[in-house]
């Protein structure tokens, strides 16, 4: 065995002795390749699982975003009795795998990766990556309300942690490796490399910025995006939502209104999610029964509001265009942000496996859609002809504020929607939402530290 360890030791010594540029070119590209391949693997696993469970067994056609195929799907169920059973079964099997093989893979995953940055960048076990991938694919594929970013963040962060252990990197380099792993994994799966790089530098703190992770994050995120896009395509997840938008000062009052509403809904999202976590911990039952019950409740809710199932990106896509949004009943548009909050809390907050970033984007999309629908009915000035602008800026504000990563999320959503033209107005929306949230102690990521000083880094 000494012979097997010797090459790794030599490689580790070479990396540790390298200058800044060479070290982070090597590490950044290596982590980026794994992040891209991990994102592809998880996407395919999630897609095939969904096609089999909801598609074949449930005979339900789930709407998909433009970047995922652009299928308009269906709002009705051919086998309504099967939907609650499928969601419950997927949640139970996912929870069983987690409880048996890697209990730390429970929940949304991003928090555990952030915690590793602050406490021990060597701590993420290799098996967590595989368990998280399988369990999250089952959760989302069976209809659970969760996002795809948690597993991909844990895959690439786990590889950064593995490199830190095997190459015996310093704690400082290890923290950067895990951080850029988080950002590149999320950036790859959403097709948002610049946003992913900025996210790597901002997601670990509530009111600070880890500048050491920014430049290595550029290399890693670009590499991950190149790998992912080369296999699955480079089109934005939601297509080009508002390609012809031109900034108009008359829109500013509406941007301010959306910022206030988005902050309130984001606050409610974080509070409801962690209240569900706390309640679940107090209730009787084991680590399998609780997520299974949560899945059953989500399945029953979906019989009335099918838009809550799975990631919901397809419904967010439909909400971004006037003709498709108007086909969705007004009461569903108005209630969907709350319904998606409840569904995500029941799916992930009860111990299920999946991300909370993605649902936050969908929640924000329907906040913007709801504001547009109501504003359009009033006939007041400054209301755009279509909901796309409101949908995009609300996506940015709703989750960017409560994640304490306003710049990163704003860039990511602009990349996901091909909508950089809305950024001037979105700065008003996101700025208002973030300032309101920053006056509270609420964050959707509990593992975040306040700043580098309080984190002791």
From TrEMBL:
Membrane-protein topology: Multi-pass membrane protein
Coarse class of the protein's main subcellular location: membrane
Transmembrane segments: 24-46, 81-102, 176-205, 254-274, 294-316, 328-350, 356-375, 387-413, 419-437
Localisation: Membrane
GO molecular function: chloride channel activity
Entry-linked Gene3D superfamilies: Clc chloride channel
Domain of life: Bacteria
GO annotation, cellular component aspect: chloride channel complex
Keyword Ion transport annotated: yes
Keyword DNA damage (UniProt): no
InterPro entries membership: Cl-channel_core, ClC, ClC-type_chloride_channel
Keywords: Chloride, Chloride channel, Ion channel, Ion transport, Membrane, Transmembrane, Transmembrane helix, Transport
Record SUPFAM superfamilies: Clc chloride channel
CDD domains: Voltage_gated_ClC
Protein known as: Chloride channel protein
Gene source species: Mycolicibacterium sediminis
Lineage start: Bacteria, Bacillati, Actinomycetota, Actinomycetes, Mycobacteriales
